[in-house]
Amino acid sequence: MFKIALKYDWAVILGGIVTDDSNHPGLVDDLSAFVDTKALPKTIIEFYEQTDRYQLVASIKWATWFKPFAMCYKSISKKMQQLNLPI
User: What's the Cα-to-Cα distance from 85 to each of 22, 23, 59, 62, rounded to whole Å?
Assistant: First the structure.
């Protein structure tokens, strides 16, 4: 078994890491801290800075060939807490 130790100075990550308990309305507080926003449409900037104003709506339809694997997918995605779609 191989072990890889990676050390990061998290304080130097662009934008920094905020550990306070305050609520933030968007994915980022200021998108210009990450990218040049001059070339971006205002709707893109608003989405990243005011994400709470948006609502994600999805319509899920499983392919027939995947249905036998759906229960396996469900248990894995639930444990990972990622994209846990209804069957």
Answer: 29, 27, 10, 10
pLDDT per residue as tens digits for the range 3-52: 444 555 544 555 555 666 677 789 899 999 999 999 999 999 999 999 99
pTM comes to 0.49
Give the containing element (helix H, strand E) for 45: helix 42-49
Cβ neighbors of 82 (< 8 A, separation 6 or more) are none
Q: What angle do CA 27, 28, 34 make, to 5 degrees?
A: 125
CB neighbours of residue 28 within 10 Å? 15
Cα 5 from chain centroid (whole Å): 25
The rounded distance, in Å, linking the Cα atoms of 8 and 23 is 26
Q: Shortest CA distance to 45 belongs to which of 65, 21, 29, 58?
A: 29
